[in-house]
Amino acid sequence: MYKVLIIDDEQPLREAIQILGEWDRLQVGEVLEAADGQAGLDMLQAYNPDLVMMDMKMPEMGGLELLKIIEQEYPQLPVIVISGFNDFEYARQAIRSNALDYLLKPVNRQDLNQALQKGIDLLEARKQDRSESISRNITYNMSLPKLKEKLFLSLIERSYNKSTDQASMSLIGADDKGRYYGVLVLRVLNLKAVCEQRFNSDTELLSFAVANVFNEMTESGLTCFSFANPKGEREMIAVYDGIGADAREWQFRAGQLLRSVVTQLHTLFGIISVGGQGAPALDPKKLADSYEEARIRVYSVDLLKLSGRSFVGMTEDRRALEIPSLTSRVTLIKSSLENGNQHQAATLGSDYLRQIKSTAFFRIGDADRLLTELVVLFNDVAREHGVAEENMPNPGEKSLRAFGLKTDFSSYDELENVFAGILEYYSALIMQAASSPRSFDAQHIKDFIDNHYYEDIKISYFAEKYYLSREYLMKLFKQQFGYGIHEYVQKIRMDRARKLLDNPALKVQEISEMLGYKDKNYFSKAFRNYYGTSPSEYRNQLSEDQDKKD
């Protein structure tokens, strides 16, 4: 509702305006009165009305003087001028002072309400403009951090587009000469645990808390803008900048800030983290180099020495690491699982991790790669056994956690637990699939042998073709056909040999070669072992039997 102030020394006129005005329709909730210019000015200051109606000729302070004061001190206040004198000077001053309307006495209902409606319309329009302006400001202020985050990410990821992003550079003070920019990277090691205990399982709340700690601990002159890396929820990125000192000074102060933040996060929230710092540069486009340097320092931290505590990495470790092959271990583990020996599979996994532990160092980045490789390799094994894709997690922490698997590790012992959990999950999948007769149809092998019995058939050929272990294939084949694979190859050859020996036109040497034996003597020996007689004796016996029939 609006407030209207009537300033006029004639009480009958004030009463007439009170009666004639359509206040409810005009959304006017209060009508105030003043009997002279000075009283009117006092009420302006005390009640802050939305619209003023004033006479031009009054005692104490005339309308012309009051109108000039209002123009200077209340330039946005709508004023409707009322005068009993058709005086050009009054009208001219009203125009100069941007009066909303000019009414002559005696005031009639229509002119009065038309003038009031004009004033209310102006107030409504201004209110709408203010509302839209406030909304725009709120939207801008809320989106400003997102705009800065998007800009910093484009610089860090080297996707900055000068033609489209140049206008945003002023948001980060890029117009200031002598401003240095650098990056701090923070990896939260116990993300899942601390989210559940302190942040109601909300990683965004944790990121917000980390950002607040960065902001609160930033010293004068050094500014810091932090945000979660959208490509890795464990990783917080903080872009620091400062002006008025050299690069070494800002690097030193940013390093102090990082150490303080790491300590404070553990004190306040129990967050175990590892931090790394990149060097500052005058060009904000160098933020990508600073980020890579900071990240390398984080992922170079030796997990074997971390022991579940926070740490700030100071060096870049690019040494080559010689660790045992995980691929060969997966093959052995797969074989154990296919044979139903889950305990042996777990032992193989533990032995592999003990070998790694005996190395000179094992970085956090190496641990990440190990877990990714583990998931990729066992997904392949699971597919070989017909496991449905929806039962297999993708590489990456979010997917692993969606399957109820642990991903936090702040020490090598905790990494072993994560590794064991993933291995146990896949063990259950693979053993279940291996026990199913539909997991692999050995008919494929039988069909191949039936058509290629004369070739040098090796079980390794099938193991490589179907991505299954030798032992598992032999077990499946015997379960389905009652023969081992080598036994079946021998049976097919010997069955074929008898049929070929029935043809007297074929020499034993020729039959030997047709069956894949390059040595006639070896064929004869194999035939004797299988049938208890040599090929020649078998053929002679056939001839004798035929003579008897004749």
From TrEMBL:
<feature type="domain" description="Response regulatory">
    <location>
        <begin position="3"/>
        <end position="120"/>
    </location>
</feature>
<keyword id="KW-0804">Transcription</keyword>
<dbReference type="InterPro" id="IPR001789">
    <property type="entry name" value="Sig_transdc_resp-reg_receiver"/>
</dbReference>
<dbReference type="InterPro" id="IPR018062">
    <property type="entry name" value="HTH_AraC-typ_CS"/>
</dbReference>
<keyword id="KW-0963">Cytoplasm</keyword>
<protein>
    <submittedName>
        <fullName>Response regulator</fullName>
    </submittedName>
</protein>
<feature type="domain" description="HTH araC/xylS-type">
    <location>
        <begin position="443"/>
        <end position="541"/>
    </location>
</feature>
<dbReference type="Pfam" id="PF00072">
    <property type="entry name" value="Response_reg"/>
</dbReference>
<dbReference type="InterPro" id="IPR051552">
    <property type="entry name" value="HptR"/>
</dbReference>
<dbReference type="InterPro" id="IPR018060">
    <property type="entry name" value="HTH_AraC"/>
</dbReference>
<feature type="modified residue" description="4-aspartylphosphate">
    <location>
        <position position="55"/>
    </location>
</feature>
<dbReference type="Pfam" id="PF12833">
    <property type="entry name" value="HTH_18"/>
</dbReference>
<keyword id="KW-0238">DNA-binding</keyword>
<keyword id="KW-0597">Phosphoprotein</keyword>
<keyword id="KW-0902">Two-component regulatory system</keyword>
<keyword id="KW-0805">Transcription regulation</keyword>
